Amino acid sequence: MDKEIPEKVIDVTGVVLTPGKPDVCLGNGEQGFECCCDECDFFLLCFPEFDPKNEDADL
Fold this sequence. Notes:
By secondary structure, the chain is mostly loops. It has one helix at residues 43-46, and strands at residues 9-10, 16-17. Strands 1-2 form a two-stranded antiparallel sheet. The longest helix has 4 residues, at 43-46. The model has no long low-confidence stretch (mean pLDDT 86).
């Protein structure tokens, strides 16, 4: 990823996201908020198995 990874990001819905930390991210769909993953710019940090460039991915 070419972008600097922020510690926290505020989603358009107002939910605070923590890129690369899916277990604690409020936007993961399991913390009482709607899942924000499909619109998150940092999706591949939490789900590297979906990155076609990741040779270690277990597809």
